[in-house]
Amino acid sequence: MSLPFEKINHELKNKICLITGGIGDVGTTLFNDLLKFDPKEIILLDNRITENSEEFILGKKISKVNCDIRDEKKLQEIFKKYQPEIIFHTAAVRDPGYAELHITETVQTNVLGTWNLANACENTPSVQKLIFSSTGKASRYLTEEVYAASKKMCEYILDSFAKKGRVQYGMVRFTHIYCNSLMDKQLNEYARFEDAVKIHSPGKFVTAQNLGEASYLMLNALLYLEPEKSNFLMVRNLEWPVESLEIALFYIKEYKRKIPVIFCGNPKGYKEKFFRGQLDWNQPNELNLLINVYENQKRKLNEEQDIIISSIFPVSIDYLKDLINKLHKIDGEQNVKNLLIEGSVELFKQSLSTVNKQDTINILKWGISPKFLEAEKAVVSDYGQIVPILIESLKESPHFSQIEDLIHNSSN
Q1: For the chain, which end, N or C, has fewer CB atoms within 10 Å of the first or last residue's CB respectively?
Q2: Which superkingdom heads the taxonomic lineage of this protein's source (predicted)?
Q3: How much of the chain is helix, strand and coil, in % rounded to 5?
Q4: Would you place residue 133 in the very low, low, confident or very high pLDDT band (cuts 50, 70, 90)?
Q5: Reported pTM
């Protein structure tokens, strides 16, 4: 992936940079890449740092600071003390399976932690820019999975702050990261130490990128910040998807093991069926799983043509603030999840008033085509609330007649 060194160095030169999740895999790779540029200081903020420390590497001051982004008061104190100028936000609960078992922790870290961080940025005059590491799962119109919903909520938060705040906000969307992918690590460990390799199911394909690409995306995002909006960046060409079974067999061969592969089924956090209307089939040569149809209408490419830049559709800032206040107060794992999902549904419904109705028609035509449903052995209800909400958004418009036959045929 391209990295316009001089342009990025211009953004970083003599700046104090802070990385949340600073000792994680992405945070560490980003830190090492920042050392190639000319920032004044790099602050690594992470709740796994045991002792605060300072040192100099390649003439740059490096500070390691223990802090959990859920601790709003401490976060504000650290920002006041260190006066950072550029923030790279990678701290998160990132395991979808773990998120389903630890719902409150995930929402407090991913959603409320990001809210805390954005407030700390706005309350610290030195802060100029924040770049957030999101996920391709946030491109889903709707989701009932905790991890994906929490990351989608983060995108809403930062886009809303971009519209009302002083700081500029940008985002990147990652997919599975080679050498950092939970699936890759797990299959490696199964093949090396266990009596069998367990995978979810045959025929499950994933796209992947490496840690270097993840870091380069975050650095490139500094160049595409705009007033009153939060653009996201993603790799344009993710290459051919890889089947998880292939990876399992590779590691079995690599370690010279004679052990079986066991298909265990998809656990919570991995069960949602792929909705074909997620992708823009008007451009089949440019299909990318990390961007949905509405977002695809805004896409543009960087000068080197290897990065897609787009933005999410806006949501009600007042409703979002009210939802965040409720998430601060509610307790109980299931209650937290219900509120997160209900809030996501309402924000999605509101956002449909701003989109092009023809895009919605195309989404339905691609997503619930009887031929596609038959081939996938799927029914409309497999996609949860997405289809009914999209249909409802068209009912009062002259466009509704274009999909009446489609609705009738797909429901039979």
Answers
A1: C
A2: Bacteria
A3: 50, 15, 35
A4: very high
A5: 0.92
